[in-house]
Amino acid sequence: MPGAQASAHGSSSENVLKDDARTAVLLAIDSEASRVDSLLPILHRIQDALGYVPAAAVPLVADALNLSRAEVHGVISFYHHFRSKAPGRHVLKLCRAEACQAMGARTLERHLTERLAIGFGATTADGSITLEPVYCLGNCACAPSAMLDDRVHGRLSVEKIDRLVEACRKGT
User: Fold this and answer.
1) What letter would DSSP give residue 94?
2) Whether the Cβ atoms of residue 116 and residue 161 lie closer than 8 Å to each other
3) pLDDT tops 50 at residue 1
4) Are 8 and 68 in contact (CB under 8 A)?
5) According to DSSP H, which parts of the chain are helical?
6) What confidence tens digit (pLDDT) does each residue in 2-44 have?
């Protein structure tokens, strides 16, 4: 497999993949590299396995697909779905689409950013929650909505979102 022997370059610890992460990246490459349109499926598999696409995975993917590192990084940074940093223990995605905005998502956004003391794309100091924007969960009839990890929650209020946050912090 091309790129399997490639090594991550750089001196910082974030530019070196641990054995299990390196294995996950190489498995993602192996499983999809024969496809013509393999970059996005590979990136999805890496993020599914690790929770994000580490910087050290970029040269491995680029070498395997005969792409530049800039091309791979450009795709990762273009799509909001991909993370380049490990998320918190829970990922809370607040819908920012029109239906949710019309039903109070802006109020929830202000409340969450104040309560969690973070903005979108950041993780709380205790590592419990990463807050991300999403632009439609397909739950418009139950707006405003959010997705906590893989579960959609609708008809949210400040009180309901507070209960979700508390559950995350308590580990339930």
Assistant:
1) E
2) no
3) no
4) no
5) 19-32, 39-50, 57-65, 69-78, 98-102, 105-116, 158-170
6) 443 333 333 444 567 888 999 999 999 999 878 889 999 999 9
Longest Cα pair distance anywhere in the chain, in angstroms? 52
Q: Is 119 helix (H, G, I), strand (E, B) or coil?
A: coil
pTM across the whole model = 0.79
Residue 172 has what pLDDT?
66
Q: What is the CA radius of gyration of the chain?
A: 18
Separation between Cα atoms, residue 25 and residue 28, nearest integer Å = 5
Contact 154, 139 (CB under 8 A): yes
94-110 pLDDT, tens digit each: 999 999 999 999 999 99
Confidence of residue 171 (pLDDT cuts 50, 70, 90): confident
- Hey, what amino acid is at 125? A
Q: Exposed (0-12), middle (13-18) or buried (19+): which is 9, by Cβ within 10 Å?
A: exposed
Closest C-alpha among 82, 35, 36 to residue 58: 82
Best CA proximity match to 132, nearest among 99, 166, 94: 94
Rounded to 5 degrees, what angle do the CA atoms 79, 24, 85 make?
A: 40
Name residue, tokens 């205790």: 126
